[in-house]
TrEMBL record:
PANTHER family: PROTEIN KINASE PRKA (PTHR30267), PROTEIN PRKA (PTHR30267:SF2). It comes from the Bacteria. GO terms for molecular function: ATP binding; protein kinase activity. InterPro entries: P-loop_NTPase, Sigma_54_int. Residues 179-237 form the Sigma-54 factor interaction domain. This is Magnesium chelatase subunit I. GO terms for biological process: regulation of DNA-templated transcription.
Length: 474
């Protein structure tokens, strides 16, 4: 029986100070969140250590802009189409915070022991003095995030009067009757608003003070809390979403607007697939390249709505679907090793159709367009990988009358038995990155790719049968 994963809250080291007096004795100095991020980023820049692990394709474009914004102490908005890793990048900022930071024990807003904000915390600090108990907050707990939805309220983000506290007998004028929202609860951390334009304009207004004056207002309270946080937002371009906009005063308060993008070149596209896809079977590198070219082809196709973009999740889901097809074949045919083949890519044209927004004139042709683009990507990869090789061994095999049957339910052993010994096969498999001693599954994958490439370059006939098999030959 497999147990469900359990979230683990980091435990602070036992040697950390536990009172205000002990903290002062260590020489600890207070830094704002933005100072903390700046200092830690400068240290990473100086040491050459990784600043944003797991972020692919932005090293020379987006990340330098993000680093400049952090060094300047700017709140920022990341603007880009869907599936460009905006949320992943925002969450990676947490890695630049100190691993542990002190706060007044029990404080709702994680107030620093040197700078209590709320009346209750100030009273406790005055009464306890150096004996004020402190606790420690891990960097992973200093991140707050809200997906903007039309029903988001000011109370969700900023706070509201807590009727239970009022019912306990406290006066309505008492600031301690306030139930704080997500933004103040992320005090001394990073707060992210995803899809900011989806936030109603009247709700966006509530963030104006947070960005400029660094305080909040709750209903009629004269409450000034100098919040210490970095505010980051993500948004799709306004001409695509049409669901809302970022109001001008709020735009003006963000220090930096940073445009994200899809991977610029093919190598970055393949690296992203290899990093992110959770594969249940072997997916040879040349098939990853086919899917990367395919994704780029769909993205650039005039039949696809360029404003909506084609998410990186399209390529990742395609890789996972192809691997799953190989695993299904292994299960049905009793293969010990599941290796994806080019025939496994056919299913993605129907299963991933919903991830692509087509131009209005292409209704009814979606699968046909995706199928054509997949064939183009396969042919391009074939030329890139096998150009200049003598493939006459394959064409001669068919010219002598052989008919080769393959398909997503034909096992590797069945395919190899039909091929036999083919001159030049070793060079083909080597060019495809399958090594000197490929397994049966890998060899079958390389052979089928070569056959499909020869067909797509009009050197080999191909026919599809009613039961889903593919026949190469005359």
């Amino acid at each position: 029986m497999t147990e469900a994963p359990i979230a683990i809250t980091p435990v602070p080291p036992a040697d950390l100070p536990r009172t205000l007096g002990e903290l002062r004795a260590t020489g600890h100095e207070f830094r704002t969140v933005k100072q903390e991020l700046r200092d830690n980023l400068l240290a990473r820049l100086g040491s050459g250590g990784p600043r944003f692990p797991g972020i692919v394709g932005y090293d020379d474009t987006v990340l330098p802009e993000v680093e400049r914004a952090l060094l300047a102490g700017h709140d920022m908005v990341l603007l880009g189409e869907r599936g460009q890793g905006k949320t992943r990048l925002i969450r990676a900022l947490v890695g630049l915070l100190d691993e542990w930071t002190p706060y007044i024990e029990g404080s709702e807003l994680h107030e620093h022991p040197y700078h209590p904000l709320t009346p209750a915390a100030r009273r406790r600090a005055a009464e306890a003095g150096d004996l004020l108990p402190i606790a420690w907050l891990h960097r992973s707990e200093r991140y707050g995030e809200k997906l903007a939805t039309p029903d988001t309220s000011v109370g969700d983000l900023i706070g509201d009067v807590d009727p239970i506290k009022v019912a306990e007998g406290r006066a309505l004028g008492d600031p301690e009757t306030i139930h704080f929202g997500l933004v103040p609860r992320t005090n001394r951390g990073i707060f992210a608003v995803n899809e900011l334009p989806d936030l109603a304009e009247r709700i966006q207004v509530s963030l104006l003070n947070v960005l400029e004056e660094r305080d909040i207002q709750v209903r009629g309270y004269q409450l000034r809390l100098p919040l210490d946080l970095l505010l980051v937002a993500s948004a799709n371009p306004e001409d695509y979403t049409n669901r809302g906009r970022i109001i001008t005063p709020l735009k003006d308060r963000f220090g930096a607007e940073i445009r994200t993008h899809y991977p610029i070149d093919l190598s970055l596209e393949t690296a992203l697939i290899q990093q992110e896809a959770a594969l249940v079977a072997q997916l040879p590198d040349f098939l990853v390249e086919v899917l990367a070219r395919y994704t780029r082809g769909v993205r650039e196709s005039p039949s696809v709505d360029a404003r909506s973009g084609v998410s990186a999740r399209f390529a990742i889901a395609a890789a996972e679907t192809v691997a799953a097809s190989a695993l299904r074949r292994a299960g049905l045919r009793g293969e010990r090793e599941a290796v994806a083949r080019i025939c496994d890519t056919v299913s993605v044209t129907s299963t991933l159709r919903g991830k692509v927004e087509f131009e209005s004139g292409e209704e009814g042709r979606e699968t046909e367009i995706l199928g054509h683009l997949l064939r183009v990507a396969t042919a391009e990869t074939f030329r890139a990988r096998l150009a200049g090789l003598d493939l006459s061994g394959f064409t001669d095999l068919v010219a002598e009358g052989a008919i080769i049957q393959t398909g997503d339910l034909v096992s590797a052993d069945e395919l190899l038995a039909q091929i036999g010994t083919v001159p030049g096969l070793a060079k083909v498999l080597d060019r495809l990155g399958l090594g000197d001693a490929p397994s049966a599954g890998q060899a079958a994958s390389g052979i089928e790719f070569a056959l499909e490439g020869l067909h797509l370059t009009r050197r080999l006939a191909k026919e599809l049968t009613d039961d889903g098999r593919t026949i190469y030959g005359s």
